[in-house]
Write the structure tokens for this entry.
Amino acid sequence: MSLTDTASFSRKAFRWVLIFIGAVIVLFVLFLVGRALVNVIFPPGPLPPTVAFGKLPKLDFSEGIEASGSVNFNIETISGDLPTLDNKAKVFRISAGGSTFGGAEKIKDLASKLNFDPNPQGLSGNIYQFIDKKEVGRTLSVDVATFNFIVDSEFYNQTKLISQNAGDEKDAIGVAYDFFKPFNFDPLDFPQATAKTRLLRIDGPNLVEVPGISNANVIEVGFSRSEIDKYDVVTPLLDKPPAVAYVSKKKIVRALLNKQDVMLNEFATYPLKGTQTAFEDLKAGKTAFNKQPVNNNFAIREVKLGYLENGGMQEYLQPVYLFKSDDGLIAYVSAVSDSWLD
């Protein structure tokens, strides 16, 4: 074969290679476009629940309120019907707490900075109690594994506090938030902007709500958890958020932090029973209320999905149906399908 013939053959071979590559690219593009059109016309179904944790323990409703008598539930939503909500939801694992040894050293240092004697009195298990260096009867009790705590004092016996005004609500929120922050209190989980306050007057050993700041000795500041996976997180009782402090003149006189360490990166999805089945559970008494119903008629204004965060230790954060009525009254029902509950 001459040099001329070789060059001609090479040009032809190169041209056919280009044609072949072009055809492959066109076929690949057509395949992608076709698959996209099929997905649009025949969209794939949702992924099935993973149920990776196996069967879940039944939710403990004992921290909520049981109705004192039979309750009539009436559907009075805007549409007049129960809504159709998601058919599955995430269940999150809850951490049992960290090292008690490391926690103990951190808590001792923190107690000292808060003006408590850093030498604790052991109470029980992981609970350490610290005594205020100056004020008699004021204590800080901390779970060194979870950093949950209680501050208590005999403030209702302090003449000066009883006779003084509580101060400014905005200042009280800031004081309470600064007090909570060192106790593994994440601003993303408990945003300061959503804090709620109540104005209270000391009446013997009790605190009575009053309408105006001029009559208040103490300001209650409560912090609720932010949404998880687009759903509200509720506590068993309306007036007991996970973090609450009582402040008077920028001083913490009583406080409680009782939150769960929700592991947002460890979850599984579970099938839900549906609003109609949940409504039947509601009528059968498989529910609890966040406050006592004032009469035996419960008007259901709205039904939503949410999460229930108990005060006691729980292994998982599970979804619930929230049947909402008037004046903040909520009845909650377990949302996970009964076939996946122990």
